[in-house]
Design brief:
Helices cover 34% and strands 21% of the residues. By secondary structure, it is α/β, with parallel strands linked by helices.
Length: 432
């Protein structure tokens, strides 16, 4: 029996694909490992969202080739640059596109053939419901992909060209998967897609995320349900009211807005809405909500005036969590040939300024928790014996943590009431 190793790069959505690849391999009788030293065949599931992610994936591929491994490149990088990769790194043993991972076994079987490429010219992501995911990360939380692909064509984003149009999964399949995860000890389910709030439009002819939340909320033993990647135009009142009402749905909204100035939003092909009103409505309908968003600075055509508009917007609105990215020029995106490019140095300065503004807001927000007792999920124990937890207001790996002191025995996955005693810019300190 052949043993296959897998290395996963990129976002949570890619992580789920990696777990599906492992599931397909296991179903076909392969032994699987996450340690590349144990085998000579390694699958690298790559990311190609921005240049930095590509560089990281390429660096891993080159490192493995140097070690004499037979490397199969899967995912977004293979989809975007299949011909270039084969030409520049001829040692690559096979390529599998971002929506072709069901062909992974075929590629492994043909590992010694010259043109071992399975990359669909027109990507079309259909979730393989007959595959049992082999989880790489088993902890308190687990991701469930409710859809993939995207029908929007934002100016900076390459995803629709790598993953095709939007495809929702059937509700019963998602619920079945959630039940299995809870049986395995998962406390928090995190729903992901390129756009979670558009869930169901393609198969049920209307947005169905609110209904899906209702059904998931009924699962016995499930602690929290979190939604990532909401889209501004589909953040309906019905959905907000459902999130406010259901006890297992955390009061957390992740809604990437990307900019505040109407002219920049238009250039980005993003919805031109009054985002102040949108945020006000979210806060009104979900009391005590935590709002995370992301912004892009240095987009072609972004003037100093546009940037100041964004800086003021962040100061006024006081988001709970903010991620900032400098624009990355990606081949194949509508913005690639746009004029009035912003110099990298200017984009970097803008990034720094927004991060400084948000750091102050975050520091002030965290101070407001001191003295309060809030539910936190126990995640792990650090090397020095501290307990690492996370509040419902924070998503794993991208937001803050809560360092907890206690004399009581606690178990990862449990949700405990923690009294906050201190805070830093991004994290909280508390005791049980």
């Amino acid at each position: 029996m052949k043993k296959i190793a897998l290395i996963s790069h990129g976002c949570a959505k890619n992580l789920v694909d990696s777990e599906l690849i492992l599931g397909i391999l296991a179903q076909n009788g392969y032994e699987i490992t996450l340690n590349e030293d144990e085998t000579d065949i390694v699958v690298v599931n790559t990311c190609s969202f921005i240049c930095d992610a590509e560089r990281e994936s390429i660096s891993t591929i080159l490192e493995l080739v140097e070690k004499g491994k037979k490397v199969i490149v899967a995912g977004c990088l293979a989809q975007k640059h299949s011909q270039e990769l084969k030409k520049e790194i001829p040692e690559i043993a096979g390529l599998v596109g971002a929506t072709d991972f069901n062909k992974i076994v075929e590629v492994i079987r043909n590992i010694d053939s010259e043109s071992n490429i399975e990359v669909s010219e027109v990507p079309d992501y259909i979730y393989p419901e007959n595959v049992e995911r082999q989880q790489i990360t088993m902890g308190a939380s687990s991701y469930i992909k409710i859809a993939d692909g995207c029908n929007y064509r934002c100016g900076y984003c390459v995803i629709p060209y790598l993953r095709g149009d939007y495809h929702s999964r059937k509700m019963e399949d998602i619920i079945e998967e959630a039940k299995k995860l809870v049986k395995r000890g998962v406390t928090e389910i995190i729903l992901i897609a390129q756009d979670t709030t558009g869930y169901g439009i393609d198969i049920y002819k209307k947005p169905m995320l609110a209904k899906l939340l209702e059904e998931l909320n009924k699962i016995e033993g499930l602690g929290w349900i979190r939604i990532m990647y909401a889209y501004p135009t589909t953040m309906s009142d019905e959905l907000l009211d459902t999130m406010a009402r259901l006890d297992k749905v955390v009061k957390y909204v992740d809604i990437p807005l990307q900019h505040s100035h109407p002219e920049v939003l238009k250039m980005m092909s993003r919805p031109v809405l009054d985002y102040r009103e949108l945020v006000k409505n979210i806060r009104k309908r979900i009391p005590d909500v935590s709002i995370r968003t992301t912004f892009v600075v240095g987009y072609p055509g972004e003037t100093e005036e546009h940037f100041e508009h964004l800086a003021q917007f962040i100061k006024d609105v006081k988001f709970d969590r903010v991620g900032v990215f400098t624009y990355s020029r990606e081949k194949g995106t509508p913005s690639y040939n746009m004029p009035n490019r912003v110099p990298a140095k200017v984009a970097k300065q803008r990034y720094k300024k927004l991060m400084e503004i948000q750091q102050e807001i975050s520091k002030e927000r965290n101070r407001s928790f001191i003295g309060k007792t809030i539910p936190c999920i126990i995640e792990a124990f650090s090397d020095n014996g501290e307990i690492v937890a996370r509040s419902q207001y924070d998503a794993p790996e991208i937001d803050g943590i809560v360092t907890v002191e206690t004399d009581e025995p606690v178990v990862p996955g449990d949700i405990e009431m923690v009294t906050i005693t201190d805070s830093t810019e991004y994290d909280l300190i508390g005791k049980i």
